[in-house]
Design goal:
By secondary structure, this protein is of the alpha+beta class. It is built from eleven helices and four strands.
Length: about 300
């Protein structure tokens, strides 16, 4: 009988404040969808870092004849065979280096033609204008500075470049977008909490006579509060369910179908469905507990008789 009473009171409360209940559902759905999206974006950035950082190289470019006249780092002339051999030996001795690959001027020219063959500069470029280089794969991509410190300014070395620096700009942009999504999410959560508290207040005020009678006949505080807390929890759970639906549809539309980014950007290692599904229980739990707790603390003042 008590359970039936609580359920009936939940239905009454939701119908009485239908407009505010709708606002709570929408705000909870949007805020938790942004919450889930920010978690998935973090996973995507982490996945991309693991995928791309494992492939980046540090390049030690060697001086050629044309650099001797134009580059201060090559003022002593083009790199000699002895210098090349010493540089390679020193690189292979470094504990942070996994492997060293030599790229000749002819190989560099071939790669340039493959990548930029349509550019006007490609027709006038010759192999002797490009630098020889050592392509270094590091055991830990974060240790680039160890190689840079050891070889920057060394005789025969024109420059040391780290491909990770290019990726850092991309990941910095993605992280910035993630923090922006979190800021909007936090704002939406605050709005949702305010709506939940106001909805509970209105519901408690409209039923103050019933709750007063219940208090006078000896009903416990929890028994009186239960319908109001359950109303907020049900509204929140509906919003959380919608948020889960938004994430599932968004993942399918953006990555698998619709925009089909997994086919158009096949160089990106997109997160799978397992990453999305593992976030759904957290979103549902948050959608249930957050409104219930907000209602509980709001009722401590507004149900005193």
């Amino acid at each position: 009988m008590r359970a039936q009473f609580v359920l009936s009171e939940i239905g009454v409360g939701l119908r009485r404040n239908l407009t505010m209940t709708f606002a709570v559902v929408v705000s909870v759905a949007l805020s938790l969808a942004l919450f889930g999206a920010s978690l998935l974006l973090s996973d995507q950035v982490t996945s991309m870092k693991g995928y791309w950082y494992d492939k980046v190289n540090v390049s030690v470019f060697l001086c050629n004849k044309s650099d001797a006249a134009s580059d201060p780092n090559c003022a002593k002339g083009a790199v000699t065979e002895d210098q090349k051999g010493q540089i390679k030996d020193d690189l292979e001795k470094m504990s942070v280096v996994d492997s060293v690959t030599y790229e000749s001027q002819d190989t560099a020219y071939k790669h340039y033609k493959e990548q930029f063959g349509d550019s006007p500069l490609a027709s006038s470029l010759t192999p002797d204008q490009l630098q020889e280089s050592y392509r270094i794969k590091l055991k830990d991509p974060e240790k680039y500075q160890v190689v840079a410190t050891a070889f920057d300014g060394r005789d025969g070395v024109q420059s040391v470049q780290d491909q990770k620096g290019i990726l850092d700009n991309l990941f910095g942009l993605l992280n910035g977008m993630n923090w922006a999504a979190r800021a909007v999410m936090a704002l939406m959560l605050v709005v949702a909490l305010m709506l939940i508290v106001n909805t509970v207040r209105v519901s408690a005020f409209s039923r103050r006579r019933e709750t007063g009678i219940m208090r006078l006949v000896g009903a416990s505080g929890f028994y009186i509060q239960a319908p109001f807390i359950a109303e907020a929890a049900v509204a929140g759970l509906i919003g959380g369910t919608l948020a889960c639906g938004f994430l599932l549809v968004g993942r399918y539309f953006i990555i698998d179908d619709g925009l089909a980014l997994s086919e158009k950007l096949n160089l990106i290692n997109f997160i799978g469905w397992d990453a999305v599904l593992t976030k759904l229980p957290l979103i549902l739990a948050t959608s249930l507990l957050m409104p219930a707790l907000a209602a509980f603390f709001a009722l401590r003042k507004y149900l005193k008789v």
